[in-house]
Specification:
The chain is mainly α. The chain has one domain. Helices cover 51% and strands 0% of the residues. The mean pLDDT is 79.
Length: 61
């Protein structure tokens, strides 16, 4: 319950211009273990292909 309130507050802050400097920078997903060829396939492919790949899904966590 407490976590949901915090999440809702953070999501609301995305659209609040007054809080632009208070928002934490989003954490980027790790690229560890992702080879160049795989990343190229993702960039030129369909979203469904990325989501079928275990490492591709971590982009949307």
């Amino acid at each position: 319950q407490k976590m949901n309130k915090q999440l809702n507050k953070e999501m609301a802050a995305i659209f609040d211009k007054k809080q632009i400097n208070d928002r934490p920078e989003p954490e980027m997903p790790s690229i560890e273990g992702v080879e160049y060829k795989r990343a190229v396939n993702w960039s030129g492919g369909k979203l469904s292909t990325v989501l079928q790949d275990e490492q591709g899904r971590q982009l949307f966590r």
